[in-house]
Design a protein that fits this description.
alpha+beta, 8-stranded mixed beta sheet, two-stranded antiparallel sheet, 9 helices, 12 strands, about 35% helix, oxidoreductase
Length: about 260
């Protein structure tokens, strides 16, 4: 089972690198030859059959993952869940979905037209989580979605893939704090997401997070190719919730700001 999980994450990683070339530079700068431990991987989707959150989650449940917490993001109109494996060495998984009924009829129609091109069979394939878009949208449609929801526009452009990977700062040799990680990144030319401050969270909520702003990647729309924000890298430092046990959940107020790492910068 663990081998299947490792194969899935390796395939997700290689796919992520294809639109996030800066990730390799992050490893060179922070890892300096040491392996980087992944805290969690995040995915986005829509709350419409057959692609809802639970459909993506099933891929991980089948590999031995269990449900963790539930999260709601009222301003961005999202719900999310996280999943954990009993093997603490395996990454956690964070899956969110857009609550489409809370948006305009125009957005709902565009999303339904995209999702209609995904079959139930597609969603069950082992590579669905890195299968990308199953549709072609115009750049004009992307811009129209962007005006209402950055999340919906990102999904229209990139579809099913890892939105971000996350460096576990707790297991990063040579770093005691997230501030040190952030400074090292900035010293090497990385732009960090400063929405709500460069560090989201605190030891009081047992989790601190920061992230780069997304790379820019060319996307072939139906009418033109345009360079837009793609994926980013997150950094997480977890604190002990009880003796020797690190907090394994997420903090909604912090995650809300992390979502903004794919905003235009």
């Amino acid at each position: 089972m663990s081998q299947q999980v490792e194969v899935l994450f390796e395939n997700l990683w290689q796919d992520y690198l294809s639109r996030t070339p800066s990730a390799k530079k992050v490893h060179q700068i922070l890892g300096e030859g040491h392996p980087i431990v992944n805290d969690h991987v995040a995915f986005r989707t829509f709350d419409i059959s057959p692609v809802g959150l639970e459909v993506l989650a099933q891929h991980f449940l089948d590999l031995g993952y269990k449900e963790g917490g539930d999260y709601h993001f009222e301003a961005k109109k999202l719900r999310a869940k996280h999943f954990e494996h009993e093997d603490p060495e395996l990454p956690k998984v964070f899956i969110s979905e857009l609550m489409t009924a809370e948006f305009s009829e125009e957005l709902q129609k565009k999303v339904k037209d995209m999702v209609a091109q995904v079959s139930v069979e597609d969603t069950k394939k082992s590579d669905f989580l890195y299968s990308g878009t199953h549709w072609k949208v115009s750049h004009a449609d992307y811009q129209a979605l962007l005006e209402e929801s950055e999340y919906a526009a990102w999904m229209a452009a990139f579809g099913y893939c890892a939105n971000h990977f996350t460096v576990s700062v707790n297991q990063l040799p040579g770093y005691e704090s997230l501030e040190q990680v952030n400074q090292k990144l900035k010293d090497n030319g990385f732009k960090l997401n400063d929405s709500g401050g460069e560090i989201k969270g605190s030891p009081e909520v047992y989790l601190e997070q920061s992230s780069t702003m997304a790379d820019r990647h060319p996307v072939e729309f139906s009418d033109k190719t345009a360079e837009i924000p793609s994926c980013f890298y997150e950094f997480a430092k977890r604190y002990e919730i009880e003796n020797g046990k690190l907090y394994t959940g997420f903090v909604a107020a912090s995650a809300d700001k992390i979502f903004e790492s794919t905003n235009a910068n």
